[in-house]
Amino acid sequence: MILGAGPCGLACAHELQRLGHRDWVLLEAAQTVGGLGASVVDRAGFTWDLGGHVVFSKLKSFDSLLAELFEPDELLHHDRSSFVRHSGSWVPYPFQQHLHHLPQAMAQRCLDDMAAAQAQGSALTGSDFASWLKSTYGRALVEEFFAPYNQKIWATNLSEMSASWISERVAPANTEALRLALKRGYTSTQGWGPNAQFAFPAKGGTGAIWQRLAARLDGDVRTGQSVVYLDETAKSLLTTDGTVLTYDHLVTTSPLDRLVAMTAGAPKSIRQAATTLRHTTVAMAGLGYRSPTTDRRSWLYFPGADTPFYRATNFSRYAPANVPGSDPDRYSAWMTETSLPTGTVLDRAALIERCDAALRRCGLVPENAQRVNGHVELIPYAYPVPTTGRDDALDLIQPWLEKHGIYSRGRFGTWRYEIGNMDHAVTMGQDIARRLVHGTAERIYTPAPTTVGTADAR
């Protein structure tokens, strides 16, 4: 049994099928497949993703799957062009590598503070995120960019976040190279990070990937089927329509806190650990205009309080088919993402107006451009927050689940932001399928020690 037809669940089903195991059922609560990687088309004909997804990977298994699903001309390839909005100007991303774009005095202060911080040595192992930022970049850079931006995206006190997730997620900075750049007024233009080059489906948005993968499945895929109760002893589950299903092994991509809450025999310690897990809620507001695409940048970051969103994606640049009639000479599309504090009651109409005003104020949309439509998708579970207590909670929850034949994978199944990309999710799905069938080790996620042999992977 597989819960969730997002990238991880679909990849698991596909791999089981490839291995010759077709006795499985895939349940998806939504009416369509794709999970957080799904795409929607609004009433005006604009295509929107559920957040800023792009296709990139260092994992060969993901690249191979993509090559199976798309012909070369069905994917568009881009060099990333990203900037940070700061004090009314645009600073190239990563911000900390382009200090010479700041006013001279501010740039010098950021550089001096960073050099002083780094002279004190690396952050201690186990540091919280706020402490790690200050010891790595210095107080000035934290104040100018890192604190406001990360507070805006995570909606969490940075001292309550761990620094263990960072890896390739936060760019480094070389003080000597920055001093030279500040003196001469330039720096390297080489792209940083795994998404410096990325691909995007020519039609259908990111969701086209998962629609195509689902179309390859010959097994029992049921959409609109939400699980409300799980009996780990009887190995059975109950869906919202009253159906009771049994399983031998359960692969689930459901949010871990929800999974534990609906599991009958989860002990108090496991339930308590699950309640400590935190996540962000994001409102994706897509705004379509009858105005040509003129901006060539990919996506933009907004640390300031003058914009509701933390990121805006130039969605009409990704693919002409994202706008009505595949006509970017007539239409443009901006996809914005706004994190919402817990308990926020979303006023969709007000958010659209605020985002529209901010896009125009920043010069991304001409003042006289006609807005054709505004579309909002609320994403209750957007990103798992890497809090300081997260790993302790996971060390309790995951072994208990696996002891009962429940394998929780994917972005929210593992609750690990650092392995939350689409390629990670696909690889986790493939890996757990191979583990259940052949007992092979997983590459992305390392489970608690357990004995799993060749088995019926229903």
Model description:
- The protein is globular and about 65 Å long.
- The protein has helices at residues 7-18, 60-69, 104-119, 129-154, 175-184, 207-215, 256-261, 268-275, 315-318, 348-361, 390-403, 411-414, 422-438, and strands spanning 2-3, 25-28, 39-41, 47-49, 75-79, 82-86, 89-92, 197-201, 220-223, 227-231, 236-239, 244-246, 250-252, 281-290, 299-301, 311-314, 332-340, 370-379, 406-408.
- The longest helix has 26 residues, at 129-154.
- It is an alpha/beta fold.
- A seven-stranded mixed sheet has the order 7-6-15-16-17-14-18.
- It contains 13 helices and 19 strands.
- Helix 1 packs parallel to helix 13 and helix 8 (268-275) packs across helix 11 (390-403).
- The chain starts with a strand and ends in a 20-residue tail after the last helix.
Give keywords.
five-stranded parallel beta sheet, 458 residues, single chain, alpha/beta
